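Person: Show me a sequence?

Helper:
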Amino acid sequence: MSDQNRMQARAALPGSGCPFHRGVGSAMLSKTSSGNLVRPHGGVGAAPSSRSAQSLTGDNGPVASDFFRMFPDLAPSLFNVEDLRLLTLPGGPMDVANLGVGVPQDNPTIPAGYTFLGQFLDHDLTFDVYSDINGRDTQPNQTRNAITPTLDLGNVYGRGPVQDAFLFDQKDGATLLFGRPDNPDGDVLRNVQGTAIIGDPRNDDNMFVDQLQLAFIKFHNQVVKDLKGQFSGGDLFTEAAKRVRWHYQWIVYHDFVRRFVGDDLYGKLVDQGPQYFPPNLQQIPIEFSAAAYRMGHATIRELYQVNASYKNVQIFDLHQPGTFLSPEKRVDWKYFFNTDASVTPQGAKLFDTVVASELLQLPEALIPGFDHPQFNGKPDPLYLSLPGRNLLRQNEFTLPAGQTVADALGVTRYSNSQLGLPQNWASTLAPLWYYILKEAKLANQGRFLGPVGGRIVGETFFSVLKNDPRSFLHNKGWKPTYGTAGDFTIADLLRIADAYTAS
């Protein structure tokens, strides 16, 4: 990848369509349409013709695979770029500042840390480095997912201790390295210029996902320490990584997905399984990566309390990628997850189509390559707006509109007026990402996703785990060996990470 492409990939933050294993996607089930209804999968059809999951070499991948359409029969929708501009620029309808002071924004059921756990998951699933935000009618198999589309912690382990030996302590070949002399316990490994030496550089995009990266490294190292009496050599890494992955996947399946899709849909997914995602296919739907999973952007707070003394700071004021992290900025997780019964963590922002103001005007240094003569050689403001960039993806991949998917699923359809789109909006329909955010607000008071967003997000995560023969779901009866009473949460992982000592 060229340096310019690397920069553009880094620019898609936070949690951008970087929404990402080995294995070939097998038979895709046929989908037939009846009127405007997309039926759930029912019978086996021909294998997909796209170049799916072409295996490359490596301990842990990488794998290049295509994306696919979860709803291939639905009509696409394109939207006027000037409409997108008016909707997504500072001061426009999507600016949270328009709500005024005193309007509740904290989600009482999703603590703030889940925003960044979601970004961490994104970086483990997808890395689209080929698509063009200015493109039109890009098909999913015309761009490539450069990493494995499974929850395998490739963003922590890289390609493993053989091919990415620089991530590991040579003493045992299994312990991951972290820290530096002036901050030995509170930062990831960095070179002399501050560049993070980690499995995926995108996990240095902001301080919170960077600190989650460190927590997973420390949890892995604790598991290695616990297994040293039973395993050695390559077997030590292999066994430790397997156990860490299964505990991580348990968190995603039993906690993360449930919080974001709600108890009712979660129960249906457990009982019935995915209805629109092809069995055995190891690919990511473009409706997920380019729209639904960008839900996390709407949950970013305007201000965060990082620890007892570091308060009221914005996400981009905290840490710039490729810089050293100060010890005093170390994240105290009790303000982000339920790690301390005596402290109520700050909530993620409620789902809505209004987002944190700073996301409408990203730092220019993070968005290179979009200089425009019309704007005196500076980037077009539309490209500095994270919502603007998201909605340009609607046009790039010719996604179906939100109402189109709602009709196909047979769920409540919200009109543009209910969605709060401007009266002069040129289309009678709404972009899928925008629709999903407002649907969550209208259907569930913004606490979790509505039926369209929840179905796409929930089915994707369930299918990622079900379609991966190495996931914990294919090891019947397995229960976490860490945690409490056969359960394991992100709070458990963080407590173990905080207690870990390298000695």
